[in-house]
Each structure stands twice: as structure tokens, then as C-alpha cells.
Model the fold of this input.
Amino acid sequence: MDVFKSANMSLEELKLELTKAVSREDFERATFLRDKIRQMQS
Done:
């Protein structure tokens, strides 16, 4: 999944992708997703 696609994802989709990234130990992606989720929630 690329950065541009994640820009169009819903909050629930981002949370699911975050869970997947953590389980893959893709912490760089997880950090990006975490920050995107926080941005959407504020």
C-alpha cells in the first residue's frame, strides 16, 4: 500500500492497516499510519 492510497482510506481502514503493519514488524509504516490516524481524529 502506498502513501497516496492511505490518504483516501477511512479511519477504520487505517486502524486495520496499522494492526497489520505492527504484526509484520513494519514499524516505519506503522508510525506513518499512527500519525495519519491521530491527524484524522483531531
Summary: Residues 1 and 37 are 16 Å apart (CA to CA). The chain has one domain: 3-41. Residues 3-41 form one domain.
